[in-house]
Specification:
Radius of gyration: 34 Å
Helix content: 25-40%
Strand content: 15-25%
Structural class: alpha/beta
Order of helices and strands: HHEEEEEEHEEEHEEEEHEHEHEEHH
Length: 335
């Protein structure tokens, strides 16, 4: 028979009398708590980094005409502190352009955007070695106005949807918001347009219904500066969005007259007469309108000066009638 002492020794070799049975569970709980704490710390760091970054949308540049066509035409996105770039890493300059402005901007018979502004953009960007893309957008996203309100910068240009808007006149209101490149067209005069066969006098427009193209230079603020027109403070103002719409409103008798620049109405005067008196609403002629914090104007002026010096601009102007003449007149600077 084994002695009690031997039994005690054998049992002591197989039983740990100093560690409670719940120890493994305690260690598992400790490890789980540590893992949760680590995950929480990582989450806090990620959230802090996300909050420190400005909230900006990813903008994809697609479609539109490309000037010049070299360098790869691909979509490019811009984030905080960056600009859209082409496949070869070159900055993409985006330019808003319309389609309802006589020989300057129109839709051709194939359905594509065309006009003298496209010709100038191509020549200037090629001369400066810039990658330029045009983007169609409503004119009101470049410059906007509402009846009874001050004119203001359009959301598209202010919110950096693009770098510039093509072919805008320099005016008193606009220079207080945007910058302008050197003009490439001369500033036109502004007239009253009214229905053929009717009478309209500029000496007194009191209570007359007058329409203006929304956001364009010849607006009611300009009319207010035409001191020789009496009753101008009491005209019944309405807005339209295009020269085509202005022409229709006058022809249909919805308004007594429209107030617009001669260049704006080229190609849209059928069935209309214009006043013999005129007024200047512009400081300078058509140029590129851009934000004050942009370097677009420097790029553009460099290229424009080159094509003026080498005669390319003069050739564009000489060929304009053959290219776009059936759409209206183009009055180049220096011509």
């Amino acid at each position: 028979m084994e002695s009690y002492k031997n039994m005690e020794a054998r049992s002591g070799s197989s039983v740990n009398l100093t560690e409670p049975a719940s120890a493994p569970a305690s260690r598992f709980l400790t490890i789980l708590v540590a893992i949760c704490a680590l995950v929480s710390i990582v989450a806090v760091i990620v959230a802090a980094v996300a909050l420190s970054r400005p909230s900006v949308p990813n903008i994809t540049v697609t479609g539109g005409n490309t000037y010049p066509s070299s360098g790869g035409v691909v979509a490019a996105s811009s984030g905080a502190g960056s600009a859209p770039v082409s496949s070869n890493g070159q900055k993409i300059w985006t330019i808003a352009i319309g389609h309802n402005y006589g020989a300057h901007e129109y839709i051709d018979t194939t359905g594509y955007l065309a006009g003298f502004f496209h010709d100038v953009i191509a020549a200037v960007c090629d001369a400066s070695g810039a990658d330029c893309r045009t983007i169609w957008d409503p004119y009101t996203n470049c410059w906007n106005s509402e009846v009874g309100q001050h004119s203001r910068g359009g959301q598209g240009l202010l919110d950096t949807w693009y770098d510039a808007c093509a072919g805008w006149y320099t005016t008193i209101d606009r220079v207080q918001v945007f910058s302008f490149t050197q003009p490439f067209l001369n500033p036109p005069k502004t007239y009253f347009y009214y229905k053929s066969g009717t009478t309209f006098t500029t000496t007194n427009v009191n209570n007359k219904k007058v329409a203006f193209i929304d956001g364009w230079a010849s607006d009611e603020k300009c009319l207010a500066r035409w001191n020789s027109v009496s009753g101008r403070e009491n005209v019944v103002v309405s807005h339209v969005t295009t020269p085509t719409e202005l022409q229709m409103k006058i022809q249909n008798g919805d308004v007594d007259a429209g107030f617009a620049a001669s260049a704006d109405m080229d190609g849209y005067t059928s069935g209309l007469q214009r006043s013999t008196e005129s007024f200047s609403c512009m400081i300078a002629g058509n140029s590129m309108m851009t934000r004050k914090d942009s370097t677009f104007a420097a790029m553009w002026n460099e290229g424009f000066n080159k094509i003026r010096a080498n005669g390319a601009f003069q050739k564009l102007c000489k060929d304009r009638n053959a290219t776009h003449g059936n759409k209206g007149a183009i009055d180049c600077v220096g011509s």
